[in-house]
Amino acid sequence: MAELLEIRWHGRGGQGAKTAAILMGEAVSASGKYIQAFPEYGPERMGAPVLAFNRISDEPIRLHCQVANPAIVVVLDATLIGKADVTAGVPEDGLYIINTNLSPSEMREQLGLTGGKVYTLDATQISMETIGRPIPNTPMMGALIRTSGLLTIDEFIANTRDRLEAKFRPDIVEKNIQAIERAYQEVQGEE
Amino acid sequence: MSAVEKGWKDVPRGGLILEAGSAKKYETGDWRTYKPVWDKEKCSNCMLCWIYCPDASILVKDGEMSGIDYKHCKGCGICAHECPRKCIEMVLDTGENGEAGAGE
Amino acid sequence: MSKRVAITGNEALAEAMRQINPDVVAAYPITPATEIVQIFADSVSNGRVDTEFVTVESEHSAMSATIGASAAGARAMTATSSQGLALMWEMLYIAAGLRLPIVAPIVNRALSAPINIHCDHSDTMGARDSGWIQIYSEDAQEAYDNLIQAIRISEHPDVLLPTMVTMDGFIVSHGMGNAELLADDVVQKFIGEYEPEHYLLDVENPITVGALDFADWYFEHRRQLADAHSKVQDVVLQVAKEFKEISGREYKLFDAYRLDDAEYAIVVINSAAGTAKTVVDELREKGLKVGLLKIRLFRPFPHKEIAEALSGKKAVAVLDRADSLSLMGGPLYIDLRAAMYDSPGSRVPMVNYIYGLGGRDVNLEQIAGVYDDLMEIAKTGKITQPVTYLGVRE
C-alpha cells in the first residue's frame, strides 16, 4: 500500500478539533491528494476531551477503522495532557505539536518521550492577539503545515481561504489567515 | 366474472384499479331481504333519501327523484326511515314482481 | 465534467438529491441522516431545485406523504435512519406493494435498546423482506453513485419498486473522504424524466390506488412483487453499464476483490469492506490466497452468482453487522448458507462473525484474525465455533 499519513487531533469540545481536521482535509484534498477527516463521535459536550483524525495518501483511502497509530499528534489544549493519553499508539518517531507556552524540551519531559519530535506553539495567545478569541485550531493548522511539510504555506492559505470565506466575514477571514501565518513563523522545534 | 380464470400475470400491477366507477359493476342488489318501494304521488322531492343513501341507489333525473337502483340497493332501509312524508315503504323482496335486481 | 471533492457521505447524498431534483421530498430528521435532508432543504429554500418539500411530524408521516406523492405521479424521495426506518415500517410494505418507485437514502444505525446512534445494519436488515430493493454502499462515492442509479432502477418499467440506498452511519455519513461528483446536466440526462404509466393526478384516466384486496387477489399481487424482484438483477446491471459510460466507475451485483484465485474469502457489507480490502492486500503480499466479496445488491439477493463466486473456496467467513437472533448467525450468513446449499462441488465450510454492533470499531488485526481462523478451519477440517461475536468484551 502507498504511504499513508495519519494525524490525531486532541482538543476539548468547542475548540474546533473537528473543524481543523476538516479544513486540513479539504486543503490537502484540493492539492490533489486523497484524504479522510473525521471525529471520534462521543457525546459532544463543551469542554469534554475530543479526538479528530486525518488520513492523507497519494492513493484512494479505503480504510474505515479508527486511527490507531498516528504519526502526527496535534494537541489543541495542553491541559489535556495527563487526562487524555496523547501518546497512545504513536510510533517511536512520532511528531507532536502542542499548544502551550512551554518549550519543546519541557513538553518532552512532561510526556516522558525519548524519541520522535516535539514542537510547541502558544496558539491560544496568537488567536487572542489576532482573532480576539481563544480559538487555537486555526493557528495549530499553520504549525502543522510548517512541521509536516504537507503543503507549502501559500498553497494551504490559498486552499483554506475559500472555505473560510464561505463561512465568515472578510475581516474575520483575514484575522484567521494572519493567525495561520504567525503560527507558521512562531512554531518552535527542539535544538 | 371471467376474472376468476385470470392469473397473477393478467391483473393490474399493485392492485391498481384502472377504471373509474368500477364499483358499479359489483351488483349488491342480491344482498337484500327487504326492498324500498317508492310512492311517487306522495313524494315532494326533498332529496333526504338521496342524501342518506349509503349506496347512491336513489336515482335522480332533472333534479327530481326518478326511482331506485335495485341492482345496487342493499335494502338497508335508511331511506324509508328518513323520509318525512313516509312515501318509501320496506317490503319483503320476493323477486316476483320483476323489480328486484332489475334496477332502472 | 466530474470533479473530485472532499465530502462527507451525507453531503454527497444531499448533492445527489439536488442533482436529481425530485418533485416531492417529505422527511423527518434523525441522526445520522438529518444532514442529508437539512442540506437538501437549503437547496429548496434557495430555489436550486423545484422540489415540493413537505415537513411532517414523524417518519411514518414522511413515508406516507412520499407514498401519496409517488402515487400521484411525482418522483418522490425521503431519507431516514434506524428508529426512523422502524417507524416507517408498515408504510414500507405499502410503498412496495403499490409498486411505487420511491428512492430513499438510509443511513445505517443501530436500533434501540440500549439507545445508540452509531452504525450497524439492524435497521435495514430488518426491512429486508419489505419488498424494497436494497443497495449497500462502501463509501460516499458509492452512496452517491448508487443513489443516482437507484432512480433508474426503481423507475424501470420491468421493476417499479422502491429502493433504499444505504451507507454506514457516522463512519461514512459524517466522515469526510473523496468522491467524484458528476455535472448536474449529466445526472439529469442519465435519470431522464419520470413518466409514470398510471398515476392519481391523471384526470383523463382516473384510477384507484390501494383498493381492498382480500383472499381473491392479494396473493396474485404479492406474486407479482416477487416477479418484479426477479427482473431487478438485469436492470441493475444494465443501469450500471450505462452509468459507467458517464462516470467511468464500474458497478456489478457485488464486488469480488482478489476473489478469483482466492482460497479463503470474507463476505462483508458496507464500510468494513474497505478496511478488509487493505487486509487482503497485506496478506496477499505474504503470499496468502485471500479474497473478499462485498455485497452491493442485497434485495433481491443474487444468490446464484454469489454461490458461483464462492464455490470451491477452502473456507468462507461472513461478516454481519447485525444479529438475527435465530441463533444461526446474522442475516447475511443465513442467506449465504442457503445460497451455498445447492452450489456444485463439495460443501464449503462457512463461519459467521457478528461485528461492529452499535458502532464498535472493527480493525485490521481483527479481520486478519478472521483469515487466520479460515486457514485453521481448512487445515483441520473442523469448525469449532460457527458464530463468533467479533470484538465483544468477554
How would you describe the overall organization of this protein?
The complex is a heterotrimer of chains A (191), B (104) and C (394). Chain A has 191 residues and is of the alpha/beta class. Chain A has helices spanning 17-30, 104-111, 123-130, 137-148, 153-167, 170-186, and strands spanning 4-12, 34-39, 49-57, 72-75, 95-99, 117-121. Chain A has a 6-stranded mixed sheet with strand order 2-3-1-4-5-6, with helices on both faces. In chain A, helix 1 (17-30) packs across helix 4 (137-148) and helix 5 (153-167) runs antiparallel to helix 6 (170-186). Chain A is globular, with a radius of gyration of 15 Å. Chain B is elongated and about 55 Å long. Chain B has a two-stranded antiparallel sheet. Mean pLDDT of chain B is 88; it is low at 98-104. Chain B is mainly beta and 104 residues long. Chain C is an alpha/beta fold. Chain C folds into 2 domains: 3-247, Rossmann fold; 254-390, Rossmann fold (3-Layer(aba) Sandwich). In chain C, the strands form 4 sheets. A 6-stranded mixed sheet of chain C has the order 10-12-11-14-15-16, sandwiched between helices. Chains in contact: A-C, B-C. At the A-C interface, helix 1 and strand 2 of A face strand 1, strand 9 and helix 10 of C.
